[in-house]
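Appendix B: a complete holo record

For completeness, this appendix reproduces one full record from the ligand-bound portion of the collection. The bound molecule is zinc ion. The inputs are the chain sequence and the ligand SMILES; the output is the full three-dimensional arrangement of the complex, encoded as structure tokens. No fields have been trimmed.
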Amino acid sequence: MEVALKIDVDTHQGLELGVPRLAAMLESEGVAASFYVSMGPDNSGRAILRVFRNRGFLAKMFRTKAVSMYGTRTVLSGTLLPSRPIALSFPEIIRDLKARGFEVGVHGYDHVRWQDHLDDIGEAGVRNELEDAFEAYRAILGEPSRSFAAPGWRTNNEALIALDAMGLDYRSDTRGIAPYQCVVEGQVLATPEIPTTLPTLDEVMGRRDLSDDDAVREFYLGLCKPDALNVHTIHAETEGMGQLESFTALIRALKEREATFVQLREVSRRMNRAELPACEVIRSTLPGRAGWISAQGPARVPPE
Ligand SMILES: [Zn+2]
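The structure of the chain with zinc ion bound, as generated:
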């Protein structure tokens, strides 16, 4: 069984507190992983705010799980309080990840802008987000990023084409079942896509049939395919903080089942691109997640 851990870092707090804890745990367990960091401002308060667009949102926010899941500062970031930079606030944490052998890639610039407004910002807006994100990465690590993971698993034709022109080793923008080449407007793009294959914890946590940590762990063990690459996206602000203990238990259970942990860059290096299926990128929805996500569509039959 092969598992690639894709760790998305969406917030200032997730990078400051969640990432060091996750890195320490994974290192002591001898587990490889890939981190994708949002390079721009933390406007996550706005993402939480969109759930409460009507009046009285603050009262609702404090009554619901938003504060306990994200913390007060994150909930207000970019709303009542100014947004803080994510990656540029903690360059030493990012350099430390690389020094310890973890993979580090780009998870967009302004996560909330990308996720909520990707289709509104146009080609120029997409390019700005990408340029700012890759520039920040280069400023911190002194080398270009070789990969990109779309915020919120949302992409569109402009983003797919702009990223393809960057000549990355791979991207991980979508949900799907196995690596593929993206087909956009009838053309097969050069950059392979390595999709997330498993549901995220926040999609699963509300389920009535998964009432405790043991049930959630068994659920994930049951979903992992023994003969395929399992790509699991976790979040620094969730599995690296409140859920660290149960995530550690999942890692140990996977090790007991002799899972091999690989980084996505290793997966990309060994892939034979010519053998990958060519698939459209479609829009879909997932149980437990609000709004649309980009997903691997059916494989295109090559013309005779
Ligand atoms: Zn994210």
